[in-house]
Amino acid sequence: MSSDLQDQDYTDQLEHEDELWNPGHRACAGCGPALAMKYITEAAGENTIVANATGCMEVISTPYPESSWGTSYIHNIFENAASVAAGVEAAYQAFDRRDPDHLDVQDEDDVNIIAIGGDGATADIGFRALSGMMERGHDVLYIMYDNEAYMNTGVQRSSQTPFGAETTTSPAGKESIGNDTNKKDMASIAADHGVPYVATASISNPHDFKQKVEKALEIDGPKFLHVYAPCPVGWGFDSAKTVELAEMAVKTGLFPVFEMEDGEITSVNKIRDREPIDEWLEPQGRFKHLFKDEEKGEAAIEELQEWIDKRAEDLGLDA
Amino acid sequence: MAQADQQNPSDEQEVMKGTSAVAKGVMAADPDVVSAYPITPQTGVVEKLSELVADGDLDSEFIKVDSEFNAASTCIGASAAGARAFSATSSQGLKLMSEPLFTAAGMRLPIVMAVANRSLSAPLSIWADHTDAFAERDGGMLQFHAEDVQEAIDHVLLGFRVAEQVNLPALSNFDGFILTHVQEPANIPDEEEVSEFLPPRDPEYTLDPSDPKTMGAYARPEHWTESRYEIQRAMMDAREVWADAVEEFRDVFGRDYTEYGGMLDTYYADDADHIVVAMGSIAGTIRNVVDAYREDGEKVGMVRPRVFRPFPAPELRDALADAESVAVLTKEMSPGYESAFAGEIKGALYHAESQPPIKSYVLGMAGRDVKPEDIAEIVEDAKTATPQMGFKESESWPQLRPELLEGGDDL
Predict the structure, then answer these.
(1) Strand residue runs (E) in B248-367
(2) Has the ipTM of the complex gone over 0.85?
(3) Residue A183 burial (CB < 10 Å; 0-12/13-18/19+)?
């Protein structure tokens, strides 16, 4: 950084009094999930309780005695954000029925209860808690931010890591093409629980994501949002290109954007002329091995493309 | 001598299964949220609470969770929101709760749980011992052990009172089957009486959106130690809070648990030459053995820690000071060392002026029956204990069946 820049006074630009996701947190430059937190709080507003799972968004936002959260916030452990939120919701149901004066808020329906977890905390280790919360019908919005691996512990493979991606536990090698599974379809799993509102969104389209958060919060019962949030460090790309990578994932169809209401797909963000997946793979360090070994790499890219095409067909993704 | 059977004469007693009685005691505490999962031998508690809610007798949110892990986790959310939260479990279920329970202590959430004590697998066993409770020893939860059903009820009420004052979770232990499935007369306090003793919870911090707080922040090395120290301080504070609570409990309910500040219950221990120390329901059998010795003019007595965390070290120092022998009867052990209970009692006496010889007896594991004659044999054996005895001689497994052991009993 030049001394000119260091000498400038940015104080004015650092005032964010009305924000509920405050600057000064420890997220890396270009962090996709940090953008997701900003959009979630903007959409939900101050009458909100957030239950966050252990993970990047937890450690970077609340190093004691500092907190970026302007909403009520609780973190407990890695795999129980859905249950903690369910417990909060049950408490508010009890207060509302038994002791309405207990709270300053008029009734519990006014309070937004949101659980937030990364892909590992949600789709893997916290799956039981999530399933239980959804199945029991708690009035909780669960938001899974998906950066496609365990980033907080240093980029290990999760059930959301795409096929072919190299992580520290799915390394590419003589006998390995990287991760050998496709992304677990959490939206369908949530919808199959009878969850009335399920949607996917990308941080590349904040307007769409925030609208979905707002819409979800209007609906009584469990809601599930899957938001795509690239990680420059774990994926190995220029931190200026986070939004671009998120948008490309949508345009290639790797991350389809859609809504499901009462188990049926009710809207799909149609893509005209889907981009081939290699356009998205190439700028990322985690896929570089696919472009070194032409034969193996091409076969893997083809396999991933086939999975994307099949999903696109199932969803009616192509315009 | 303070015993649980000093009933207020006007109090009516009911006879019902231990788990039902505990559930009705919980009802009187009027929790906002109950979240529990079935496991033998606790299941009766969760069943009865479900029934009370279904019949409209208990106005709690009852969360039908998918596991004990999420019973504890939902209680954490509810308690953080400001609710009075209750759960119940046993054995494997308590192990599954262990991770969130430690955080309930760290986050200072006064969740109260009834633990129907049972052995831990493997081999699988559904029967009573204290292995499950001892495995949670270092979590920062208050722990009490009941001798009978009445205490199992009363310890839950005392548990809420003390937990909510010192902001720590509490495990109210009562022996699986021996107390969960027994039918014995007990007084079930009604909600009106209890509300006098246990006012609605009034937490200092909650997840109230009108006053946003961050709970469960991440602490770096420069802050973590103090949070652990605060748990220790709260445990020490709990001693006095518990002492006050048992006094007020006596005034309201007529049952007197005030001996040694409510930490110990003793039976003919004051002048005893030979003292048996044990926790839980086995104390009932020990009383019979003590009676028999006393009839023969022999000074045998019993000391029963009612509270296990905070550990009643000063009280034990006092109660065991003049004994010629101390036999620790325990339904747990820490493989590779010795009974954790015996080890802690020995630790308590390290600073004492007088240190009676202590021998521990691992027995009653996984429901193995302990008869009065077994205890009498132990009392006789303990008389031979000396301060000079070796480590191997300081522990005995009197109920071992060598014929089932490969190579016999060669410890």
Answers:
(1) 264-267, 274-277, 300-305, 307-309, 325-330, 358-362
(2) yes
(3) buried
Model's pTM, two decimal places?
0.95
**d(Cα B243, Cα B315) in Å, to the nearest integer?**
12
Residue with tokens 């120390």: B277
Residue B253 DSSP one-character state: H
Residue B200 is given by DSSP the state P
Q: Which domains does chain B have, with CATH numbers?
A: 11-202+218-253 (3.40.50.970), 262-410 (3.40.50.920)
Taking contacts as CB-CB distances below 8 angstroms, the residues of chain A near B209 are: 46-49, 71-72, 105, 111
Q: What is B109-159 written as a DSSP string? A: ---EEEEEE---SSS---S--SHHHHTTGGGS-EEEE-SSHHHHHHHHHHH
Residue count of chain A:
319
> Which structure tokens are listed for A318?
């192509």
How many helices and strands (H and E) does chain B possess? Answer: 12, 16
Structure tokens at B224: 């973590």
B214 Cβ under 8 Å from any chain A Cβ = yes
CB contact under 8 A, A62 and B214: yes
Distance of alpha carbon B126 from alpha carbon B91, whole angstroms: 8
Residue type at A145 in one-letter notation: Y
Min Cα distance B114 → chain A (Å) is 19
Query: Which residues of B177-273 form beta strands (DSSP E)?
Result: 183-186, 214-215, 264-267
CB atoms within 10 A of CB B198: 24
Q: Under DSSP, is residue B303 helix (H, G, I), strand (E, B) or coil?
A: strand
Tokens of B293: 């010795």
pLDDT (tens digit per residue) in B57-98: 999 999 999 999 999 999 999 999 999 999 999 999 999 999
Select from B86, B84, B229, B33 the least CA-distant residue to A89: B33
Name the B residues in 55-114 with CB < 8 Å from any A CB.
59-61, 63-67, 69-70, 73-83, 85, 99-100, 103, 107
Distance separating alpha carbons of residues A32 and A204, to the nearest angstrom: 9
Sorted by where each starts, the structural domains of chain A and their CATH numbers stand as 32-315 (3.40.50.970)
Each residue's pLDDT tens digit, A154-189: 999 999 999 999 999 999 999 999 999 999 999 999
